[in-house]
Amino acid sequence: PNDLSVVLRVEYGETVVLLTGDIEHAPQRAMVEEGVWLEATVLKVPHHGGATSSRAFLEAVGAPVALISAGEGNRYGHPAQVTMNQLDGASIYRTDIHGRVTVRSDGERVRVETQR
Fold it and tell me: Could you tell me the pTM of the whole model?
């Protein structure tokens, strides 16, 4: 069922947000291989930051802002360290650490607010 998640690309001016649901390796690989336009400003990291993301996908997206929705102390250990390492260079916001994460954009700049 994770691979049937809806993937949504939202463009507002120069800001692009890629919402990926819980997609895992297969659909990520397919989007990269098919040349789907993945580059984004903000990425909602797939599958709670689990170890099911491919480096090629994350590099194709290249988002400077990464959002990870994961419950504090979840039994799956999300997010996985391998995924965190692959997001090197991005500003990472995690709901298990930062609480509520709000992203705002005027179409040019992105502002992230957190509330614990």
Answer: 0.94
Longest distance between any two alpha carbons in the chain, whole Å: 39
Number of other residues whose CB lies within 10 A of the CB of residue 97: 14
* CA–CA separation, 63 and 109 (whole Å): 13
Query: Are residues 78 and 48 in contact, defined by beta-carbon separation less than 8 angstroms?
Result: yes
The one-letter code for the residue type at 50 is: G
31 contacts: CB under 8 Å, gap ≥ 6: 7, 38, 57, 60
β-strands 91-94, 100-105 pairing: unpaired
- The model's pLDDT over 7-61, given as tens digits with 9 standing for 90+, comes to 999 999 999 999 999 999 999 999 999 999 999 999 999 999 999 999 999 999 9
- Distance (Å, rounded) from C-alpha 70 to C-alpha 21? 12
